[in-house]
């Protein structure tokens, strides 16, 4: 059916045509096997540098076996939202497992990291309250802030002094204040100043919240995240994490005091109105946290690969952050090109040469900051990385990106 048949949707076709003219339109690439360092997308074998599967847990044999065992014993679905009939013992076991791992009183699991962020912010604040948010915070934080109807104050990226200025502006206003930051920023890979913002929140009596999606499994002891990385246990009121990246499965979670979690059981809309995880997913996540404790060498390999890959990209002349752009400090490695069309063309050319690197352009990143976003994992071999580096440099020179 075309827009000629349904003219009321013609504006969507116009918007898509505009994306095509800008060169930033894309189509979904289809993975045909496991989410692995080398895999097949659209029938082509590629070195996969686009995945959040940091530690290779998405296809770890112990996680696969845990999923199969839970399915055989408990079925494929939970049957309901958790407040009606869908809370299974395995869901409670997972929440207790995460709470112990994160050194907090309690935890609640959501169906996605996006739902965890949006559901929590919108539940704990109202229209009389204030949110102080880093300008590069994740879209789920932004949406949650809007849903809360609280007044939103945006501080410059990682600018603690600017955040304090905004806190001073609203200090005498009625309502609660919430300071929120990503632990690791998803597009630039830099680490949020959790320690300094946490101290600031304490000084002004504000709630402190951290989205640790890209820090979970990457920073801190055994991947406990940015709160552990900065030694901020007990000083961050709301910790959000994901089960969809380093943990290798699906979902998000919120950690904090028992009262916070009990309140979210009663008021977080994604929790109240979405069917709970299949038991296979909960079992997989439990097994993943065991692996984090038992195989810390995976995180060591992740960082070894990251340091090597980023060093070689810089040596070749690529811009991977710094000078008017945040500098990466984690396995998230942006190759910044600036112009959207060039970036998407580079991404497609890399794919044709056997490297999967996703092009990111406006509105995900600001105009003029388009980039190829690359992530190495613990499971990439040195040969994988060298082949990818050779391809990146060769294609970039052919396209005039590098001299």
Structural account:
The chain is of the alpha/beta class and 403 residues long. It has helices at 10-22, 61-74, 82-86, 89-102, 113-124, 139-148, 160-170, 194-203, 226-229, 258-267, 269-273, 279-294, 297-316, 340-352, 382-398, and strands at residues 38-41, 44-48, 106-110, 130-134, 151-155, 177-182, 207-211, 238-242, 252-256, 332-338, 355-356, 358-360, 370-375. The protein has 2 domains: 23-54 and 296-398, Aspartate Aminotransferase, domain 1 (Alpha-Beta Complex), CATH 3.90.1150; 60-294, Aspartate Aminotransferase, domain 2 (3-Layer(aba) Sandwich). Helix 2 packs antiparallel against helix 12 and helix 5 (113-124) runs parallel beside helix 6 (139-148). The protein is globular. The model has no long low-confidence stretch (mean pLDDT 95).
Provide the gyration radius in Å: 22 Å
CATH architecture descriptor of the largest domain: 3-Layer(aba) Sandwich
Strand content is: 15-25%
- Supply the number of structural domains: 2
Q: Cα distance, first to last residue?
A: 47 Å
Task: Report the average pLDDT across residues.
Answer: 95
Number of DSSP strands? 13
Q: For the largest sheet, list the strands in their spatial order.
A: 3-9-8-7-6-4-5
Give, in order, the helices and strands. HEEHHHEHEHEHEHEHEEHHHHEHEEEH
* Number of separate helices: 15
Unreliable segments of 5+ consecutive residues: none
Main CATH class of the largest domain: Alpha Beta
Main sheet record: 7 strands, mixed
Helix content, binned percent: 40-55%
Q: What's the CATH H-level superfamily name of the largest domain?
A: Type I PLP-dependent aspartate aminotransferase-like (Major domain)
Principal-axis shape equals: globular
Helix/strand/pairing category: alpha/beta
